[in-house]
Automatic annotation (TrEMBL):
Protein name per UniProt: tRNA-binding domain-containing protein
Keywords: RNA-binding, tRNA-binding
Domain TRNA-binding residue range list: 246-301
Top-level taxon of origin: Eukaryota
Region: Disordered, residue numbers: 149-243
Family annotation (InterPro entries): Arc1-like_N (IPR053836), tRNA-bd_dom (IPR002547), Tyrosine-tRNA_ligase_regulator (IPR051270)
Biased composition (Low complexity): 194-211
Compositionally biased residues, Basic and acidic residues: 159-168, 212-223, 230-243
Organism: Zizania palustris (Northern wild rice)
UniProt GO MF annotations: tRNA binding
Length: 301
């Protein structure tokens, strides 16, 4: 692409920078915009010579002036944006550098096909954010970004241990039946010995009708087996049910922070007014004061 293809970029830069700095866009004449290059136009409006900002202004100037090197410059930009949301600063507030670079890069990106656009995922993400929070007037045509729809996976239901291993239920059931039979047989034997008819020839003293110590131990052992394996599984099922959590019960919403200020009674808290886009503005208190200043959180359109 030739430099003439970027004719509307300077107009968009001048308008967006004036809006960003709360200046009157009409104060910059169209003649001065046409006769200035990107570096001189930026210095005329912003009046700043900070090294970090000027580095990106010169990047934009090179992007316009060096025909045939656009893909190489886009590769560098894509790599730089892989770890951050905006070009300068640690928050989400666009800077003057973001405005200048966007106004030049979007002209070239709008001429690329879908396959070529996918080579620069971080640039696309950044451009989609900038074009929705910065006012460039009517000279900039928004780039269409295909966004994937996120469908949260359903939470799998935990299988009951007995359902997972049906043989275990059969084993326990069989164990109960066998133990019950053993206990029944043991009790019948004991009852038979007690109710046996008296031997007239050799009468047995009454105290011998009671089961011996070994038989009593055997009966107690059989009774213990009958109760073995019977446990109260209700608490375990309740705990498993409580541990289940389906992500579909969450109501996740995305909004823009319109106002933010320090909490009057807590230095570590911030108060934000969040626009949800449906006419509702919510006021939220968060513990972000040690990470961001109120100005870093506010998104202005």
């Amino acid at each position: 692409m030739a430099a003439a293809d970027f004719a509307g970029s300077k107009q968009a830069i001048a308008y967006a920078l004036c809006k960003h700095l709360r200046l009157d866009p009409d104060a910059v004449s169209s003649t001065s915009i046409e006769e200035s290059d990107i570096v001189s136009l930026f210095s005329h409006i912003v009046k700043s010579s900070e090294d970090e900002i000027m580095k990106w202004v010169e990047f934009s100037s090179s992007f316009v002036g060096k025909d045939g090197e656009h893909h190489l410059l886009l590769d560098n930009l894509n790599q730089d944006l892989s770890q951050k949301s905006v070009l300068l600063g640690n928050g989400f507030k666009p800077s003057a550098a973001d405005i200048v670079v966007f106004a030049t890069v979007q002209v070239f990106m709008n001429h690329l096909g879908e396959y070529e656009l996918q080579k620069y995922p971080h640039v696309l993400r950044w451009m989609d954010y900038i074009q929705n929070v910065v006012d460039f007037g009517t000279t900039v045509r928004k780039i269409n970004v295909a966004k994937s729809v996120f469908n949260p996976p359903s939470h799998p239901k935990k299988a009951n241990k007995e359902d997972a291993d049906p043989s275990s239920k059969k084993v326990v059931s069989g164990q109960k039946s066998v133990d019950k039979s053993d206990a029944s047989v043991g009790s019948k034997k004991a009852a038979g010995e007690t109710n046996a008819p008296e031997n007239k020839a050799n009468p047995t003293p009454a105290k011998n009708n009671k089961p011996s110590g070994d038989k009593k131990k055997s009966q107690e052992k059989s009774a213990g087996k009958a109760n073995e394996g019977v446990t109260d599984k209700a608490p375990q099922k309740t705990a498993e049910k409580d541990s289940e959590c389906n992500v579909s019960i969450l109501n996740i919403q995305v909004g823009l922070i319109r106002k933010a200020w320090k909490h009057p009674s807590a230095d570590s808290l911030l108060v934000e007014e969040i626009d949800l886009g449906d006419g509702n503005v919510r006021q939220v208190v968060s513990g972000l004061a040690k990470y961001f200043s109120p100005d870093d959180l506010v998104v202005s359109i």
